[in-house]
Each structure stands twice: as C-alpha cells, then as structure tokens.
Amino acid sequence: MTDDMIERVMNALRNTLWQHGTQLTRSINEELARAVLQEMRKPTKAMLEAGPPFPYMDEYVWAKMIDTALEEKP
Predict the structure, then answer these.
(1) CA-to-CA distance for 13 and 20, rounded, in angstroms?
(2) To bridge 69 with a disulfide, which of 5, 15, 36, 57 should be the other Cys (CB 3.0-4.6 Å)?
(3) Where does the pLDDT of residue 67 fall: very low under 50, low under 70, confident under 90, or very high at 90 and above?
(4) How far apart are CA 61 and CA 54, in angstroms?
(5) Rounded Cα distance, 33 and 15, in Å
C-alpha cells in the first residue's frame, strides 16, 4: 500500500466508483482526489477536538498537513 495520500484517495474513489459500475480516467480521478483533499483543508470543530490538544494540533497544523498531501505526486 502506498503512503501517498493522493494515491490513496484516488484508489478509494476508483474502487467505490467501480463497485457502482463507473470508471474514470486517471487524470479525472486525480482531479477529484485533489478536490476532496482541498475541501478537507479546513477541519471541523469535531475533527480538531478529536485530535491532540493545542498547540500540537490546530487549524494551521491541519492545513499544513493537507497542503503537504496536495504537494505529493501520485
């Protein structure tokens, strides 16, 4: 299994869509994966509360983690 987040999201999207009889090109699948991660840049209150306490986790740290995932090349 890959440690690349974009690749992992792409695999999840592909597998879910395949189960419903839909297939996407790799470029569209990657675009969707990036859109999902981009939307996740801003955590919900519940997500922040579930993580470690401030200053270890806050919106900046979360966004930086997502930005790092978005910089990865699948």
Answers:
(1) 11
(2) 5
(3) very high
(4) 10
(5) 13
How far is the C-alpha of 50 from the C-alpha of 26, rounded, in Å?
A: 33
Q: H or E segment at 22?
A: none
pTM assigned to the model: 0.80
Give the helix, strand, coil percentages of the chain, each rounded to 5: 65, 0, 35
The residues near 13 (Cβ < 8 Å, ≥ 6 apart) are 24, 29, 32, 33, 36
d(CA 56, CA 59): 10
The 10s digit of each residue's pLDDT in 26-46 is 999 999 999 999 999 999 889
- Determine the Cα–Cα distance for residues 11 and 71; give it in Å rounded to an integer: 17
Task: Label residue 2 by pLDDT band (50, 70, 90).
Answer: low
